[in-house]
Write a structure and sequence with these properties.
The chain has 375 residues and is an all-alpha fold. It is built from 14 helices and no strands.
């Protein structure tokens, strides 16, 4: 039914990416509240946040199987509803065991919804016959920005955390109702084949996705620390690096579909990986603030369309079913986000953050050298 209405499919896909961005932002705003309510120190908070990652990594490969049996609509909706419901008690809880269980469920919801909507996005792009994945992913960034700005404004007006979450839940319900008819609900003909490990070229797609996510997470987790520490002599506010990076990435994704259509996937991947590699090199070696911020700009622009191009390539391979392959590279990519902070921290502990960021430049050059795999 909904396959014959391409516009509705596309708008619903954008809406769900936007909603997941809002949900992520709402959780980000709740983290300091959770820490205060439970009286957690930084180490305990880190362990609590690990529950989110564990829930997501467990759910992502399972979500590929669920999509193959029940379609994207049921899995994406179920994941978002679970995440939205769990946020309210998380804003009120004080018990650490209950918080851990709630954060784990939040991770399951995030992982399920994100995997399902990426499977739908690949399918919708196939049906449209033109690049669309970068634009879809841009709506996640837009949702994240709006989901962060709204709660900050409400907090300044005196709203309590639970009231802010309830406002977000109301928005979730309204937007989800409008998106519902355009979510694919066709299971695979054989009902799915269960959890599948990556095979063949899907391993390489997963590795490249993990590197891209690792680089993005590095700027978020370590960019401010680097600017205030080893680059502290420049006297620049720590938040500037991520602000420039995030703005460049959003701009790159909003224009990415046009760029991919014009230049092709291989060139976009090669140029993107090279730009990010140069960007990390500038962050490490730049002698002044403009070049330093220019490095963050290049990282954002370079990374912007790598993951969408890899999802496109995953949807076109014939080694695995699309649902299983997309779930596999999403899981590996998310594992890169989880492992990234610890890996870079270990490198920094053994040497310095400068060396860690230099290592990322090498990894992004590796991505560029493997661009032809997306043909």
């Amino acid at each position: 039914m909904n396959r014959r209405d391409p516009k509705r499919l596309q708008n619903s896909t954008r809406s769900v990416f936007f909603l997941i961005g809002i949900l992520f932002a709402l959780w980000s705003c709740l983290v300091p509240v959770v820490k205060a309510h439970a009286g957690l120190d930084d180490g305990a908070l880190g362990l609590l946040l690990l529950c989110l990652g564990i829930g997501s990594v467990i759910a992502m490969p399972l979500a590929g199987y669920w999509v193959s049996r029940w379609g994207c609509r049921a899995v994406a909706t179920g994941g978002m509803v679970l995440s939205g419901i769990v946020l309210l008690p998380l804003s009120l809880m004080h018990s650490v065991p209950l918080l851990a269980a709630g954060v784990f469920c939040l991770g399951v919801g995030f992982g399920s919804a994100e995997t399902a909507i990426n499977i739908q996005a690949v399918d919708v792009e196939k049906q449209s016959g033109r690049p669309m994945l970068s634009g879809f992913h841009a709506f996640f960034s837009i949702g994240g920005a709006m989901g962060s700005g709204g709660p900050m404004l409400l907090a300044q007006l005196g709203a309590s955390p639970w009231m802010i979450v309830m406002g977000g839940q109301a928005s979730l319900v309204m937007l989800l109702l409008t998106a519902w008819p355009g979510l694919l609900n066709q299971p695979e003909p054989d009902g799915g084949s269960g959890f599948a490990l990556p095979r063949g070229v899907v391993w390489l797609f997963g590795l490249l996705t993990g590197i891209a996510f690792l680089s993005e997470g590095a700027v978020l987790d370590w960019g401010g620390v680097y600017l205030s520490g080893e680059r502290g002599s420049f006297g620049i506010a720590p938040g500037w690096g991520y602000a420039v990076f995030a703005s460049a990435m959003t701009l790159g994704r909003l224009t990415g579909d046009h760029v991919v259509a014009r230049l092709g996937r291989v060139r976009v991947m090669a140029f993107g990986g090279s730009a990010a590699a140069v960007g990390f090199t500038l962050v490490v070696l730049s002698p002044n603030i403009p070049l330093l911020l220019g490095g963050f700009l290049l990282i954002g622009l370079g990374c912007a369309n790598i993951v969408p191009v890899l999802y496109n390539a995953t949807g076109r391979q014939n080694v695995m079913k699309t649902s299983a392959a997309v779930a596999a590279i999403t899981t590996i990519g998310y594992a890169g986000i989880l492992a990234g902070p610890a890996l870079l921290g270990a490198i920094a502990q053994a040497s310095s953050l400068t060396i860690a960021f230099g290592f990322l430049a090498v990894l992004m050059a590796f991505v560029a050298l493997n661009a032809r795999v997306t043909r």
